[in-house]
Amino acid sequence: MSHNTSSNFEQVWTVAKWEFLHFFKLKQEIIGKLIMLAVGLTIYFIATQTQKLDDVYHIATDQEFVIESVSADANVFKFNKVENVAEIIDGLADDNGFDAVLVFNGLNSSNIPNAQATDKKNEKAIKANSSPTLITAEKFTWQNQLVSLISSELNIIRFNQLDLTAEQQVALSTPIHIEHKILDDLLKNDADYNQTITAFGVLFLLIVAVFSVFGQLFVSITGEKQNRVTEQLMATMTPQTWIDGKLLGQILFALKTIVTTLISIVLSFLFFSVIIKQQPVDLTIINWALLPWLFAFAIAGLAICAAFMAAVASAIDDPNHSGKSGLMMLPLVPVIITFLLIDSPNGVLTILLSYLPITAFAVMPVRMSLVDLPVWQPILSLALSGLCFYYFRIVAARVFKMGMNMYGKEPSIKDMFKAMFKG
Amino acid sequence: MLQVNSLEKHYQSVTAVNGLTFEVHPGEIFALLGPNGAGKSSLVKMLVGFTQADRGSITLTDGDETHDYIPSHLLGYLPEDRGLYPEKTVKQNLAFFATLHGVSKTDFEARCLHWLEKFSLRDRIDEPLKALSKGNQQKVQLISAILHQPKWVLLDEPFSGLDPINQELVVTFLAELKQQGMTVILSAHQMAMVEKLADRVLLLNQGTAVIYGELEEILLAKQAAVIHVRYADQVDITSLDELKNNYAVETMKSNQLLITLQNNQTLNGLMPLLASLGEVVELKNQAQSLHTIYLNAVAAHNTERSSSEGSSAEISQQGEIS
């Protein structure tokens, strides 16, 4: 008779592999990505098709009106002055040859002597402050473009009526830019806003991963309890080994989710910009130098959230009748806090939360994107997060063992707090 | 060797295990018996290290090493509250537990096929577990508990939920484990199965040991010389009175008698009288089965406990009056 033994690490790895493969289905993964691509393509083509204009749209007007814009879109709108606007409006729904009616209300050039249009094609009677009305039978996308073109044309007419020079016209049509200078030298300038986009991008991926891990850990732990596998597992290894294996498996799965989602986004971006739009690749939006830090914090955040979830799920026997499922939403709190504090990255509360392990994984990366920080700060934050994860996984194992020996009773929140301090 | 000394376990006001002392010898099949709530599960949980005793000790000696419970590398465990992963195949389930115990792939293949063959499940190796009947799932779980060939096997209710044919298969399975040198501790209610298998038994009731020792000795000690006689026809009433004057006779039916031999009475002395009553067609010793011993012992223990509790309550009342 031979007696076999397996080291603690081997057992952790076996559980991790089991956990990962339990949820990873290559076929479904590929199908999922193909569906995403198909949906993206469909949305893109629907959007481009709805924005694409028909041959010609006929617009009836009560005044002479022509769009002089050089835009290609302008040529598809033909304005025809009609005598009886009311009759055309009545027949719009009956396909009377017009797609819309443009009515210039109360136009009377004689009342405003200095406000006459210099435009030869548009009647001089068009008033500078006139508010025309566009009437259509139904709502379509092309109408937005028509409104935009009419608005631009009327703006030009207004400038002409006011008799402005070319410089004045340019000055009036250019928005005023106000530069905001902040005396805090640590804050990065506006040019570094890409870093913030990168940080929020990773935070978004992290949220996706955290929620997928949450769901899976919950299903996995409570599922094993309901399948009654746990006692035999616990006779094979310690609760700590089991929890560690599950956490490792789920963290690996979450990283897979982050990486594949990121690859999908980048590939979709490349596909649409290079192949479909035939534009050059522009990946400057990604701050590559910040990425390793962001991933380090993402892993720390995932690990802490997963350990927290493992502790909660360990205290639940029947997910249908447990009041603890609401605790699953708690890791959203750091993300919400991050959005609330983003405007004051050097505030005392923000600094404090960027070190507090349960919020650091969300706050510190965003802070790093906004403030020039000495390297010891993110390192310290990561180290504290590591310690927190180490402790949370111990608590998760304690809660699990406690629940297993309570003969069907679930550990209360009080019991869970006790487990935080006593093994 | 597993030694348990004065073991106690309390859950708030309930005493689950009360001063248990016993030994399990290497290579034997040791049966834990007892009604529901007798303390078997509490004892099992302490033996596998899930819970700790409030008092007393468990000492497992394995070569030079001693442990205060059966450690996982020496243990094969089938819990009472059992199940595996229903979505996974039979092989995946078995491979998972074997890998956790460090069984090599080659050993796993050989052992897995061997045991599945024994349980007539070899053809179903690649089917998901949920496709199997409950009895077959239980057999797979039994295999998963012993694929790593542990020195100690602890099986909690291995016969429950199995039909008589599968119960017999489990008896053969346990006998093979013993043959391979494993020590088997099993908790069970199926006395007929235990009687076939066990070397020694421990009967628990209300957390205490009621019967403990070699099964053969227990059966012999509790054996009563009760003879069951069946006649071809109704017995002769005149001769029956003579028999009743000399022996303790109980008439079961008009053609069946139950005779209890006293200390100095022998079967040889009884035979002529039995023959005088009519044509004997069946004569058998109504030996006490383990089942009867179990029921009698538990009943006697319960009566003893309630009377001792009654007397102590009486003494306490008298004390209060005086």
Element layout with pairings:
The complex is a heterodimer of chains A (423) and B (322).
Chain A: H1 8-23, H2 26-51, E1 57-61, E2 77-81, H3 85-91, E3 100-103, E4 133-136, H4 142-161, H5 166-173, H6 193-226, H7 230-234, H8 239-276, H9 291-314, H10 332-341, H11 348-353, H12 357-370, H13 376-404, H14 413-421
Parallel strand pairs in A: 1-2, 1-3
Antiparallel strand pairs in A: 3-4
Chain B: E1 2-11, E2 14-24, E3 29-33, H1 40-47, E4 55-62, E5 65-67, E6 75-78, H2 90-100, H3 105-118, H4 134-146, E7 152-156, H5 164-179, E8 183-187, H6 191-197, E9 200-205, E10 208-214, H7 215-221, E11 226-231, H8 237-246, E12 248-253, E13 256-260, H9 267-277, E14 280-285, H10 290-321
Parallel strand pairs in B: 3-8, 3-9, 6-7, 7-8
Antiparallel strand pairs in B: 1-2, 1-4, 4-5, 9-10, 11-13, 11-14, 12-13
Helix pairs in contact in B: 2-4, 8-9
Structure commentary:
The complex is a heterodimer of chains A (423) and B (322). Chain A has 423 residues and is mostly helical. Chain A has 14 helices and 4 strands. In chain A, helix 8 packs across helix 13. Chain A is elongated, with a radius of gyration of 32 Å. Chain B folds into 2 domains: 219 residues, Rossmann fold, CATH 3.40.50.300; 62 residues, Alpha-Beta Plaits. Chain B has 10 helices and 14 strands. Chain B has a 6-stranded mixed β-sheet, sandwiched between helices. In chain B, a hairpin with a 2-residue loop joins strand 1 and strand 2. In chain B, helix 2 runs parallel beside helix 4 and helix 8 packs antiparallel against helix 9. The C terminus of chain B is likely disordered. Chains A and B meet through helix 1 and helix 7 of A and strand 6, helix 2 and helix 4 of B.
